[in-house]
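Hi Y.,

Following your request, here is the sequence exactly as I used it, all 269 residues.
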Amino acid sequence: MDHRRSRASIAICAVLAIGVAVLALFGPLLTSGSPTEQRSLPFEPATGPLPLGSDEIGRDVLVRVLHGGLPVLVLAMGSTLLASAISVVVGLATGLAERRASELTVRIIDVVGVAPPLLLMLIIATGFPGSDLAVLVAVALVCVPFSVRVVRAAARQVSALGFVEIARARGDRWWSVLRHDVLPAVSGTLVAELGIRFTAAIHLTATAGFLGLGRGAPAANWGRMVNENFPGMALNPWPVLVPALLLVMFAVSVNLLADEAAHRIGGRR
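Below is the corresponding structure, written out as tokens. Let me know if you'd prefer a different format.
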């Protein structure tokens, strides 16, 4: 019974994650309306022509929702891939390196890691106002210290096991040991960490939009929509509730799917 319930939960998460991703990627193709066109008075309630009503300056909320997911998804995916690439290289290298070199690298990473993530992101992103690339790099750099610690700990734990010591003793090259012995053993950890970082990247990217970082108005962005329309929730709650709900659904679903994938990978080893 628990197994069936677990499978049903994973299926629901997969449907939600894929559904939100498809909406974000192809939403702009589902409407011919302009996300910047003023259609009515501000905060008009839902009507026939405006299924989700209007926002703070009278724009169609549904059209802006369909256009606002793509920048969040692209920035979150890009920053996650960048952070993961850096973290895997640095984490595995420091996990297998000599103790002194490993600790020196970790101390440098810790200097970045002690800074509050939101403050660090604000400093980097505000240095290049209006740039989505700056937001992507800022989010990635915020995620790197946390990922490096996790990957390094997993690599050091595996490197102390017998089969890795045997591979080193028989003279296998460093890269061969890493690829054939260490990397398969830490794959479950890497998948779980990827899901956690992607969830964090969604949160940070949406927060960047909420704070007005990256491309500014009138570009549609789910995070920015929540901030812009919060004062008018009593008149029309949909400009806040719909993008906020989509962000939460996507982040939670992806995180649970990554945890399940990591569990299955770990169970097969």
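The chain has a mean pLDDT of 85.

Thanks again,
Q.
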